[in-house]
Specification:
single chain, alpha/beta, seven-stranded mixed β-sheet, six-stranded parallel β-sheet, elongated
């Protein structure tokens, strides 16, 4: 396998493939990455220099190095490294693309990845391609184009038995659900599968029988026999683990189903966008006063209710004759109706001004409303922040964004979703206060600068020590130090540090292995993946029931894709596509 990239995602993906799945990997990076040190995963720690030299020779296959490229061995990561300024045809050939099983192009620039993908498909039509693209619509077209090119190569005499596919992923899309879920109370582990929104929650055993047990958490034993966490335990083990805390899976809602359609529906939905809540209550109060006066007039005079309502409106707008000589009750009601009419005029004027202001500010950014509370403060509207914002709004979570760049790409999304935005440098005094940080439920700092995220988190903790804080930090060692320090300084508050490359690498690795990874749930120091797998021709799935396909410690079938009511005795057949919970090594075994 070949991995080409220019940031930490390339190093982490190469380490994931080699250390977890035992794959032979060649890493292609720019010369500026010579001093960069990738993460260490699994067996990659024990790779020796001699073995690396043999792998380098096998990967390069005796080809002369491409112009501007140099081959070195990364002792920390355990895979051969090819350094090149550009991903030319000669560089890809030197990396062994013609004989590779899969190629991952994870440069931060979309154009670089697309250009290299077109070249690689021409060199090896049977190659499994995984591209990192931020533009979703462009990614769909590129995926169809490259798959069509592979199909034409098969028709021209290629080996159709070899799986050739193109998968377009975005590190922002794969990391956003985990970042958004971590900021929410009670939904710290959320996975959106194909048509389903699932939540992993911690519950003491015995749990409800209708829930899938994903993992048993570790237990400290005073006698020294500590029990490690168990992923996908067998049913017998779950029944015998009374008293232990388990992670179980439950359905939150059906994505795009009736619930989401009804979420934004209302009796008069346009009133919410035109008028403020205070004005709506004022109008409702005046309408109630008019009805009360009409009922009182009907009771006092005995006239028809419709005529009583009509006379009340005439009195309100002062276009009825004075009630001279009428009973005292009628005169008092006329005076009260005139008073209500005086109160109605400023309310109507305010309604007109608010409606005009709504139309005027429809294309501008909203400010945080007064009295806002229980929201999430999101720092940064770059690639990651925009995806996190979209994810939070899909979960119907109130958000206030803070962005220092008035030209940030996420401002258009915030304007479309009508999310309040505070423009300003978060490190300046008063910016977080403008975002109502003292009444927020969580702070989610996802800017591209580690120091900015850390400074915002520390300042927010001085304002509110019990605030839930989620940081996006690039450096793993720095993230660990920050997490431990904040946890020790604020033991009563939740602090989480997340690396986008760490969250995205399993999805890219799964795509290179030919399986679509939909999400991941962290279980202490381990990770449980959710993937969509085609049943057709799979000996461990086809022809078996859902219960029979369960392999403890490796994988478990959760549901058919798009369905939540899959019975345990359903026989998996050709054409079915199932959503499975799988460990990393179980995913490798499913190949």
């Amino acid at each position: 396998m070949v991995v080409c990239g220019d940031d930490g995602l390339a190093h982490r993906l190469a380490a994931e493939l080699r250390g977890v799945y035992g794959e032979q990997v060649t890493l292609v990076v720019p010369p500026a990455e010579r001093a960069a040190r990738g993460p260490v995963v699994g067996r990659a720690r024990a790779a020796s220099a001699a073995l690396l030299d043999r792998v380098v020779n096998a990967a390069v296959g005796g080809r002369p190095a491409a112009p501007g490229a140099a081959t070195t061995a990364a002792g920390a990561v355990g895979e051969p490294v090819l350094e090149a300024v550009e991903l030319t045809e000669a560089v890809l050939a030197a990396a062994g693309v013609e004989r590779a099983t899969a190629l991952a192009l994870v440069h931060d620039d979309d154009e670089t990845n697309i250009r290299a993908a077109l070249t690689a498909r021409r060199l090896n039509p049977r190659l499994r391609l995984v591209l990192r693209l931020y533009n979703r619509r462009l990614g769909q077209h590129i995926e169809e184009l490259l798959d069509q090119a592979a199909a034409l190569a098969y028709d021209g005499g290629g080996d159709a038995d070899v799986e050739a596919s193109t998968t377009v992923l975005s590190d922002a899309d794969t990391a956003a659900p985990a970042l958004a879920a971590t900021a929410l109370a009670g939904t710290s582990k959320v996975v959106q599968t194909e048509g389903l929104l699932l939540r992993a929650v911690e519950r003491p055993l015995p749990a409800d029988s209708g829930l899938h047990t994903l993992a048993l958490l570790s237990v400290s034993d005073p006698t020294g026999g500590d029990q490690e966490p168990r992923l996908l335990p067998a049913d017998e083990e779950v029944r015998g683990a009374a008293g232990r805390t388990a992670i179980v899976l439950e359905q939150v809602s059906t994505a795009g189903g009736p619930e989401s359609a009804a979420r934004g529906a209302g009796v008069i939905p346009w009133l919410n966008s035109l008028f403020s809540r205070r004005l709506r209550w004022s109008l409702a109060g005046l309408v109630g006063c008019v009805l009360a006066l009409a009922i009182a007039l009907w009771a006092v005079t005995g006239i028809h209710p419709v005529r009583a309502f009509y006379l009340t409106l005439l009195d309100m707008f002062a276009i009825d004759d004075p009630a001279v000589g009428a009973p005292l009750g009628r005169q008092l009601l006329q005076l009260l109706s005139a008073l209500v009419g005086l109160l109605l005029l400023p309310v109507l004027l305010a309604a007109v001004l608010e409606a005009l202001g709504t139309f005027r500010t429809a294309t501008s950014l909203r400010r945080p409303p007064r009295g806002l509370g229980g929201h999430v403060v999101l720092l940064g509207l770059g690639k990651i922040g925009t995806r996190v914002l979209t994810r939070l709004r899909e979960l119907n979570v109130p958000v206030v964004c803070v962005e220092s760049d008035p030209e940030a790409r996420g401002l258009a999304t915030a304007r479309r979703l009508r999310v309040p935005v505070v423009l300003g440098d978060v490190t300046q005094e008063g910016v977080l206060e403008s975002a109502k940080i003292h009444r927020a439920q969580a702070l989610l700092a996802v800017t591209s600068a580690d120091t900015t995220n850390l400074e915002a988190a520390l300042y927010a903790r001085t304002v509110r020590p019990d605030l839930r804080v989620v940081l996006r930090l690039y450096d793993d060692d720095f993230a660990t130090a920050v997490y431990r320090t904040l946890r020790a300084a604020y033991p009563g508050a939740l602090t989480r540090s997340r690396s986008v490359t760490h969250l995205a690498a399993p999805a890219f690795a799964g795509a290179m292995l030919g399986r679509q990874v939909l999400g991941a749930v962290a279980v202490e120091r381990q990770v449980l993946l959710f993937a969509a797998v085609d049943v057709d021709g799979h000996p461990m799935l086809e022809g078996r029931t859902v219960d029979q396909a369960f392999r403890p410690g490796s994988w478990r079938v959760l549901a058919l894709a798009g369905r939540s009511d899959t019975p345990a005795d359903h026989v998996l057949a050709k054409g079915d596509r199932v959503v499975v919970a799988v460990t990393r090594r179980g995913l490798a075994a499913l190949r």
